[in-house]
UniProtKB/TrEMBL annotation:
Name of the molecule in the record: Metallopeptidase TldD-related protein
Domain Metalloprotease TldD/E central: start-end pairs: 129-226
Gene Ontology cellular component terms for the protein in this record: cytosol
Tree of life domain: Bacteria
Family as reported in the entry's similarity comment: Belongs to the peptidase U62 family.
Phylogenetic lineage: Bacteria, Pseudomonadati, Pseudomonadota, Alphaproteobacteria, Sphingomonadales
Species this chain originates from: Alterisphingorhabdus coralli
């Protein structure tokens, strides 16, 4: 894979060449990735994939006219031609009154290093053979569970990435990361009564990856537990979200407070900055500096220093998520949430997020529910970001007299995100396993559509 020094130098060269061609400002991002992915099924090797990619994107400004191009070639002649071509494109482009580079006083100053984040496992060693052994161990453990009758396989992925960024304001930076993932997916039952479930784990360091047998056994037990499902009667009832699916609710929140959506009036929360939309007990924290976090970063896609944020502070929307363009549209300052690939203008993204734990156990959270639904799977994307209307297929377990009961499938849960957010109650079982982490969540007042 392209090394950090070469990537940063290529980005700096592109910016320099663009300025010499007449650009008034420019930035360049270099993104490189490599991965090895091994899949097994029923004890046999099914697929091995190896991929490597490197791409550089150059964005130039001629006044307020903007254009961008990308390339997978890094030789000097190609970079010069790239700069010449994109400057000509910018001169022919319409003006964008909101396009701009990040303010110099907000740029990352290298006070903290990538070593502090520890998101690159320099010591990890792997090859297709070792990854295959791990995938086989996960699948074998899943298939060993009584009631498991078939398998969709076990898989392990190991890889790394590199992001380098340079701007005409003098910013230049880059750092590497690694990621490891393991999963198992199996089926229980037979014929039309077969049920599927899975388990997975991701980590920045290979040694942090959960034991293969543990992942496999969890996948098998989950599949068996879902056998002989029923549907539920239609009507309102309390819904409890398992942590592995509850994070999707936070994804809907971040989409609604993204500055570009707010500026277009395409968010149901567009008028709610500074207002309380969650109960006072709910706070949602973003921490880009989490040690070995799956989305940890030193700076955003425009070079702005990454800082912790309280997205929701005691129930209140603290701020929008802004890159420089969205900030300009809303007459605000960037919050350091720009995302950047190798092509096009910066988007908006978040880093590591968690919803703070409550003070009751999941069992206590459900103890007073006479008839409810515990959701472990969500299907489809029936969510309207403009109105907040929410409707998704779901599977899981009935809650009867405060306890989990029979498996449930083929139902739909519905509500409005504004009402759902206002009713969230959190349990105390928060674990930092994902990029978005939540404890078990309860929401009363939603509707189940079953039979």
């Amino acid at each position: 894979m392209l090394n950090e020094e070469r990537a940063r130098k290529a980005a700096e060269q592109c910016v320099d060449y663009a300025l010499k061609q007449g650009a008034t400002a420019a930035d360049a991002a270099c993104v490189a990735e490599e991965s090895t992915d091994v899949q097994v099924r029923l004890g046999a090797l099914e697929d091995v994939q190896r991929s490597e990619s490197a791409e550089l994107g150059l964005r130039v400004f001629v006044g307020q006219q903007v254009a961008s191009v990308s390339t997978t070639r890094f030789d000097d002649e190609t970079l010069k031609e790239l700069a010449e071509r994109v400057v000509d494109m910018a001169k022919a482009a319409p003006e964008d009154p909101y396009a701009r580079l990040a303010p110099k006083d907000r740029l990352y100053t290298h006070e903290q290093t990538a070593a502090a984040l520890d998101i690159c496992d320099e010591a990890a060693q792997w090859d297709a053979t070792s990854l295959r052994s791990m995938a086989e161990a996960a699948e074998d453990a899943a298939r060993s569970i009584d009631g498991v009758t078939n398998s969709e396989g076990g898989s392990v992925q190991a890889g790394g990435g590199l992001m380098a960024l340079a701007t005409s304001d003098g910013f230049s930076g880059g750092y590497r990361s690694t990621v490891f993932a393991m999963s198992a997916s199996v089926l229980a039952g037979s014929g039309s009564d077969m049920q599927r479930d899975y388990a997975y784990h991701m980590a920045r360091h290979l040694d942090d990856l959960e034991d293969a047998a543990s992942i496999g056994r969890r996948a098998g037990a989950r599949a068996v537990a879902r056998m002989n499902p029923v549907t539920l009667p239609s009507g309102p009832r309390p819904i409890v979200f398992d942590p592995r699916v509850g994070g999707s609710l936070i994804g809907h929140l971040t989409g609604a407070i993204t500055g570009s959506a707010v500026a277009r009036k395409a968010s149901f929360l567009a008028e709610d900055r500074g207002k309380q939309i969650f109960p006072e007990a709910i706070s949602i924290i973003e921490d880009p500096h989490r040690h070995r976090g799956l989305r940890s970063r030193l700076y955003d896609g425009e070079g702005v220093t990454a800082q912790p944020h309280r997205l929701i502070d005691k129930g209140v929307v603290d701020n929008w998520l802004l890159n420089c363009s969205a900030a300009a549209q809303l007459e605000m300052e960037t919050t350091g949430h720009a995302s950047r690939g190798s092509g096009g203008s910066p988007g908006i993204s978040v880093s590591n997020i968690h919803l703070e734990a409550g003070d009751v156990t999941p069992e206590a959270l459900m103890s007073d529910i006479q008839e409810g639904f515990y959701v472990t799977e969500l299907i489809g994307m029936g969510v309207n970001g403009v109105t907040g209307d929410y409707s998704r297929g779901a599977g899981g377990f009935a809650i009867r007299n405060g306890k989990l009961a029979e498996a449930v499938s083929e139902v739909t849960i519905a509500g409005n995100l504004r009402d759902m957010f206002a009713a969230i109650v959190a349990a105390d079982d928060l674990e930092m396993r994902r990029a978005i982490n939540v404890p078990t969540l309860r929401i009363d007042g939603m509707t189940v559509a079953g039979h």
